[in-house]
Amino acid sequence: MARCRLPRRREALEPGEKGKHGLEAKELGEKAGVDYLLIAGAAALWGSVGVFLRWINLPGREHFVVFIRSMISVGFLAAVIAASGRMEDFRLGGHPLLLLASGALLTLHWVLFLKALNNLPIGDAEFITYLAPVLVALLAPLVLKERLEGITLLALALALVGMGLISLTGQEVGTGSPAAGTGYALASAVSYALLLFILKFLREDTPALTVTFYQTAVNAAILFPFCAFRDFKITPGGWASLLVLGLVHTGLAGLVYVFAVRRVKAQHVGIIAYLEPASAMLYGLLFLGESLGWQDLAGGALIIAAGAMVIRRAWSSDRPPQRPLGRRVPGDTA
């Protein structure tokens, strides 16, 4: 029986060649470049969440900030879905219970994260929360039955040393407690790591916009009994900051990220995401007068290095093996 002759797969388009959407290689490269900038912009914008939280000035009532932020975002995302005509994005998808559970876990993560921001310098809170990628690699053998690798243990050791250095500074923020802030940030990192595992399963058959919409809707529903019909005495400037957090940081930036991330390599997204804690450190210095010592900088650098090691290892594991030039593989008739 004659064998089919399969076309060879090429890693990139040649100049002037068109891809499946009729775009030339140069155009595809330009579009990818824009997507990288959009993701970097979203990460840098999210780094300013702590600044707006301090301007809202509701320490101890972070759940109300999450509630209002979620309500605004739900309205914004619902309007986007309706305007796009993609009403199917309102469907729960193939894992409705898992989707709703992810919303509950995100509620916990956001409340813990905002509490960390109110008790620590925002750069420190962000860096500790970004232990999440390392925790994912550490928990993967338990959740996904993957083999625990030496690089994971090394990354964990670096990350823990980094967190220890940040904790040693003990810099107080207002009436906040550095010890409590470190605990909140670490719990925030754990909750986010668990959320990433759930998202891994949801991505199989649920659109990203659907996930974002229902997660924020669940946030609002869970926190409604604790926030409705209560006077939290927020200044006009605080309400303005809340509006920005809901519309810009959660709604607009989240939407831009969801659509841009589809055309950017996963390992690149993970590395670009570290612009968030790096920019948070800068915003804290510029807008809040939070100066970081060498321990904070060294600790943040170690956490970034640990995350980059994990991301790089995951990328190299997912790449298909390269065959030497000029060598055939079984079944290759070219």
Topology:
Blueprint: H1 25-46, H2 49-56, H3 62-84, H4 96-119, H5 122-129, H6 132-143, H7 150-169, H8 178-202, H9 208-227, H10 236-260, H11 266-272, H12 275-288, H13 294-318
Helix pairs in contact: 1-10, 1-12, 2-10, 3-9, 3-10, 4-5, 4-8, 4-9, 5-8, 5-12, 5-13, 6-7, 6-8, 6-13, 7-13, 11-13
What does this entry look like structurally?
The chain is mainly alpha-helical and 334 residues long. The protein has one domain. 70% of the residues lie in helices and 0% in strands. The protein contains 13 helices and no strands. Helix 2 runs antiparallel to helix 10, helix 4 packs antiparallel against helix 8 and helix 5 packs across helix 8. The longest helix has 25 residues. It starts with 24 loop residues before the first helix and ends in a 16-residue tail after the last helix. The N terminus and C terminus are likely disordered.
Calculate the terminal CA-CA distance, rounded to whole Å: 17 Å
**Computed structural class:** mainly alpha
Low-pLDDT segments, ≥5 res: 1-23, 321-334
What number of domains? Answer: 1
Q: Radius of gyration from the CA trace? A: 22 Å
Mean pLDDT: 80
Gross geometry: globular
Helicity range: 55-70%
Q: Biggest β-sheet: count, sense, barrel?
A: none
Q: Helix and strand string, N-terminal first?
A: HHHHHHHHHHHHH
Summarize the structure.
By secondary structure, the chain is mainly α.
Could you list some keywords that capture this structure?
334 residues; mainly alpha; 13 helices
